[in-house]
Specification:
FAD/NAD(P)-binding domain, seven-stranded mixed sheet, single chain
Length: 455
């Protein structure tokens, strides 16, 4: 007896929707289930609304900066409720687009939770259906803390629906979500304490970018409480650190990472193995331990970025139902942290590159042209990492205005194998910040043990 579907996708986020749509375009009978909201985390409680909030937070600074250019601007007051209402209207519009894409592709849509019964059977919306192949694309969820009083914290899901903006906010964590929201809340007028375990924020990023961000956060008036751990939080939002310090605040926001959303999916019944952290174990082609079941995106906890989930979903659908998989470069994926100013990065950090051999480091740090008149204490930092033997540019990093837009272009060059000589012979656009990447001629330092020994 034939199955009800050729392909059933569990999860209607960016990766799942792309996989379903491409497979359906090749003639597959596709079912898609989404239990929460179409578009997933990115569209609803992640990248998209977060960037809208970042943009909102920057308008206040822009008004202040305009005075340096002759504008007579009266002090302004922000309306948090109006911002959230506008954000919600845009998210509703995007949700509808995702749903229409599924309908337009001819997919059968289930607005319900789906659970695996066995390797070919899914329980969804009160009925049971079967599928030849199944893709799990359920993404991740914020990790809730477990210290005493953790119930008094909000997580990132909640931050997008706050009824008002409290005057004092403490953020727990030093990752990208924590530093982004620290900038958002500070830019909108809140007093922000950022509490994290490391000496610098953004563990895992290039050290020069971490240092530059640390300085930038302080310049925004954010209070950095570093190398600190939480002992408890009481009902009055008093935070007690393990060293005995007490922090008074009005809202505690726990941004302590995310985890793969695999709870109660029926993975064991379907023979799908998970890793120790609960994420689904997959091979290079998104295959799981069960031959007909695949997993893409954050639920695999590999490279947790929306465009990567989309690439994995597209490639998988092409491989299963099309002429063959589209080739994606996933070893040098560019990414951004939407702080104020933002970070853009692609390729290896200095530490990663130096571990592989000697590298030449080029760094430029300057005051952006805008702020020579605005007077704002804001610096731009740019960095190139060049393999000494081949002269390939293996990493590019930037903290500064428009960094993600600039790094997006550089990521093409780095993925294409550009050398430092290619950068050097490129004529820059003047006056821009981006031209600095093609005018860095003087090496700042050499990194890598073999290179240092040779020096």
């Amino acid at each position: 007896m034939p199955h009800d579907f050729d392909l059933f996708v569990i999860g209607g986020g960016s990766g799942g929707v792309r996989c379903a749509r491409i497979a359906a375009g090749h003639g597959a009978r596709v079912g898609v289930a989404e239990e929460r909201f179409w578009g997933g985390t990115c569209v609803n409680i992640g990248c998209v609304p977060k960037k809208l909030l970042v943009m909102a937070s920057e308008y206040g600074a822009g008004l202040d900066d305009s005075r340096g250019f002759g504008w007579d601007v009266a002090p302004a007051k922000h309306n948090w409720g109006a911002l959230i209402a506008a954000k919600d209207r845009e998210i509703d519009r995007l949700q509808a687009i995702y749903k229409r894409m599924m309908d337009g592709a001819g997919c059968t849509v289930f607005d319900a939770r789906a659970k695996l019964v066995d390797a070919h059977t899914i329980s969804v919306g009160g009925k049971t259906v079967t599928a030849d192949r199944i893709v799990i694309a359920t993404g991740g969820r914020p990790t809730r803390p477990d210290f005493p009083g953790a119930e008094h914290c909000i997580i990132s899901d909640d931050a997008f629906y706050l009824p008002d903006l409290p005057p004092r906010i403490a953020i727990l964590g030093g990752g990208y979500i924590a530093v982004e929201f620290a900038g958002i809340f500070a830019g909108l007028g809140a007093k922000v304490d950022l509490i994290f375990r490391q000496p610098l924020p953004l563990r895992g990023f290039d050290e020069d970018m971490r240092t530059a961000l640390d300085e930038s956060l302080q310049a925004q008036g954010i209070n950095l409480i570093r190398e600190a751990q939480i002992a408890s939080i009481d009902a009055h939002k008093r935070i007690t650190l393990t060293d005995g310090r007490v922090i008074e605040t009005d809202l505690v926001f726990a941004a302590l990472g995310r985890h793969a959303y695999t709870q109660d999916l029926g993975l064991e019944a379907a023979g799908v193995l998970t890793k120790k952290n609960g994420a689904i174990a997959v091979d290079a082609e998104s295959g799981t331990s069960q031959a007909n079941i695949f997993a893409i995106g954050d639920v695999t906890d590999r490279l947790n970025l929306t465009p990567v989930a989309i690439a994995e979903g597209h490639s998988l659908a092409e491989r299963l139902y099309g002429a063959g998989p589209r080739k994606w470069h996933l070893d040098r994926v560019a990414t951004a942290v939407f702080t104020s100013p933002p970070i853009g990065t692609v390729g290896l950090t200095e530490a990663q590159a130096a571990a592989e051999g000697p590298v030449d480091i080029y760094i430029s740090r300057f005051t952006p042209m805008r702020h020579t008149l605005s007077g704002r204490a804001r610096k731009t930092t740019m960095k190139l990492i060049v393999d000494q033997a081949s002269q390939l540019v293996v990493g590019a990093h930037m903290l500064g205005e428009d960094a993600p837009e600039i790094i997006q272009g550089l990521s093409i060059a780095i993925n294409a194998g550009a050398t430092k000589a290619d950068f050097d012979r490129t004529v820059g656009i003047h006056p821009t910040a981006g031209e600095e990447f093609v005018t860095m001629r003087t090496r700042t330092r050499v990194a890598g043990e073999r290179a240092l020994a040779a020096e």
